[in-house]
Design goal:
By secondary structure, this protein is of the alpha/beta class. Strands 7-6-5-4-3-2-1-8-9-10 form a ten-stranded mixed sheet. The radius of gyration is 21 Å and the shape is globular.
Length: 426
């Protein structure tokens, strides 16, 4: 049942390190309304420079492989839209990795909107064992509401064509579905759409963005940077597309109820995998629900490294791959307040919460509201997480018993049909 694949952050073990590469920076052929990354172009020069130079690429690949203490090195390529770089860029990636392949198991993942995929791309991805994460929000009206191109046209049909090409060529893939405010009202329509389309691995990512304050707006940005954990946030207004916390919890619960009765073992929803993982008592495989941050970095197209995908702002820059070494930059990230404060700055409301083990306060970026006793640093999605994590224990306890008795977890579906239709203890 458990699957280690995470479509967004690919969390690593306690001794490993992980760097998400953005070789084209914020450049993209779409103009998704809720995207927090597109506007980062304001922090760089003209778009023609949004391509990772060969020297930066070679330095990153060498240092990342040599610095990784684990036997497998997982490269994740994101954007913007990385397929804009063309196949030759990724042929060079594979060639630069090859000299190290005898000492490490090297894997590659590519996050894409899928609109530029064709047969040649898919043959390459299949031949070189790429895992592809494709961004698809659900049926056409839901997907096209926010995921439009620069001419204002919806991208659904092009993305679906890309998904079908991946399926046709047998490329391993998963789906990243963003959950905006309107999406949360249609949980079963979204879930059944994916299931009927043959999607087996899904991750639901809540859309939460604050509006920028005056200081941030002066940089040419409309969205706020991550919340500062050591002081209350004055700007708590979110965008009109940000999901409502309670409604996000209801969204997950509705899909979980459908999944746990019909699709366990055939459809893998990563949000549910993480909940099971926490129930068993394992450390979180993703940074959102890990105790601390700081080990999952981002390298930009110019070689600059940042503490997190959500922290590509000048104040979070750690250094550059051409002048600093990865181990030094990772250590710098771990020692900063950013990484440690995820755990140490939790408000009392979180520390005493019955779902802390599963939630861990969520992403620091979203800790911009106050608790009921006016303590700062509460996660915006708190109410939704509490709803979901308090709903699942009776199911997770059955699933855990099945695992402990070396029985298929899918038998939970039989257990829920009536007064225990299966015997948990042989």
């Amino acid at each position: 049942m458990m699957n280690a694949t995470n479509m967004e952050e690919m969390g690593c073990g306690p001794q490993g390190l992980h760097v998400v590469a953005k070789p084209i920076g914020p450049a993209c052929n779409l103009d998704c309304a809720y995207c927090f990354y597109l506007e980062k172009s304001a922090l760089y020069g003209p778009r023609e420079y949004f391509r990772m130079p060969d020297a930066v690429l070679a330095a990153f690949i060498r240092q990342y492989i040599e610095s990784q203490p684990t036997p497998e090195v997982a490269f994740v390529w994101q954007g913007g839209e990385p397929t804009l770089l063309g196949l030759d860029f990724f042929r060079l990636v594979v060639a630069l990795q090859q000299p190290f392949a005898s000492n490490k198991t090297i894997s590659n993942s590519l996050q894409t909107n899928g609109t530029l995929l064709d047969d040649e791309w898919c043959r390459f991805l299949k031949d070189h064992g790429f895992m592809v994460g494709i961004s698809l929000d659900g049926p056409q009206p839901i997907h096209d509401r926010y995921r439009r191109d620069r001419q204002g046209q919806g991208s659904f049909e092009r993305t679906m064509r890309g998904l079908q090409l991946l399926q046709h060529h047998g490329v391993e893939y998963n789906v990243m579905a963003s959950v905006a405010r309107e999406t949360a009202a249609q949980p079963l329509e979204v879930y059944r759409f994916f299931r009927d389309a043959g999607v087996e691995f899904i991750q639901f990512a809540p859309v939460v963005e604050r509006l920028a304050d005056e200081k941030t707006a002066q940089l040419g940005l409309r969205l706020a940077p991550p919340a500062t954990l050591d002081r209350p946030e004055s700007q708590t207004a979110v965008t009109e597309w940000s999901v409502v916390p309670d409604e996000y919890g209801d969204f997950l619960i509705a899909i979980f109820e459908e999944w746990v009765r019909h699709d366990v073992g055939s459809v893998f929803v990563m949000n549910f995998e993480w909940a099971i993982n926490a129930w068993i008592g394992n450390p979180s495989p993703i940074c959102v629900h890990a105790k601390q941050c700081g080990r999952s970095l981002v390298i930009e197209h110019d070689g600059s490294l940042y503490a997190c995908d959500h922290c590509v702002y000048p104040q979070y820059r750690l250094g550059n791959i051409l002048t600093d070494t990865l181990p030094v930059l990772v250590e710098k990230s771990l020692q900063t307040q950013f990484g440690i404060s995820k755990e140490t700055a939790l408000p009392r409301w979180c520390r005493e919460c019955d779902v802390l083990a599963a939630c861990q306060g969520g992403c620091p970026k979203h800790r911009f509201i106050q608790t009921f006793d006016n303590e700062p640093g509460l996660q915006y999605l708190c109410a939704g997480y509490q709803k979901f994590f308090r709903h699942t224990p009776r199911y997770l306890s059955i699933m855990t018993q099945l695992l402990e008795n070396k029985l298929p977890v899918s038998l939970v579906m039989e257990a829920l049909k009536g007064p225990l239709a299966i015997s948990i203890n042989p």
